[in-house]
């Protein structure tokens, strides 16, 4: 087995590992966004509706990172 064959087999699994690592960031981000929304609602219950709307917008932006990660895995990995 030469170096080119080894590199080709490693690059296929790097894309999978790369997307796995790219999914960790948005997961942590969504957890922080939801946690801070719950904390804000506990402190100011009258702002619950506004905070919930902002939470969904924050989740949408955070999940966009996951979509970029999976697109990158398809572009560079396959």
From TrEMBL:
SUPFAM superfamilies registered for this protein in UniProt: F1F0 ATP synthase subunit C
The name on file for this protein is ATP synthase subunit c
Q: What's the main place this protein lives?
A: membrane
Tell me what gene encodes this: atpE
- Keywords tagged on the record: ATP synthesis, Cell membrane, CF(0), Hydrogen ion transport, Ion transport, Lipid-binding, Membrane, Transmembrane, Transmembrane helix, Transport
Q: Where are the transmembrane segments?
A: 6-33, 53-76
Q: Which Pfam families match?
A: ATP-synt_C
Entry's family note: Belongs to the ATPase C chain family.
Q: Where in the cell is it found?
A: Cell membrane
GO terms for cellular component: plasma membrane; proton-transporting ATP synthase complex; proton-transporting two-sector ATPase complex, proton-transporting domain
Q: Which CDD domains match?
A: ATP-synt_Fo_c
Q: Which HAMAP family match?
A: ATP_synth_c_bact (MF_01396)
Q: Which InterPro entries does the entry link to?
A: ATP_synth_csu_bac/chlpt (IPR005953), ATP_synth_F0_csu (IPR000454), ATP_synth_F0_csu_DDCD_BS (IPR020537), ATP_synth_F0_csu_sf (IPR038662), ATPase_proteolipid_c-like_dom (IPR002379), F/V-ATP_Csub_sf (IPR035921)
NCBIfam families documented for this protein: ATP_synt_c (TIGR01260)
Q: Where is this site: Reversibly protonated during proton transport?
A: 63
| Gene Ontology molecular functions | lipid binding; proton-transporting ATP synthase activity, rotational mechanism
Topologically, how does it sit relative to the membrane?
A: Multi-pass membrane protein
V-ATPase proteolipid subunit C-like domain location is 15-76
Q: What does this protein do?
A: Key component of the F(0) channel; it plays a direct role in translocation across the membrane. A homomeric c-ring of between 10-14 subunits forms the central stalk rotor element with the F(1) delta and epsilon subunits.
The UniProt entry, under Gene3D superfamilies, shows:
F1F0 ATP synthase subunit C (1.20.20.10)
Question: Which PROSITE patterns does the annotation name?
Answer: ATPASE_C
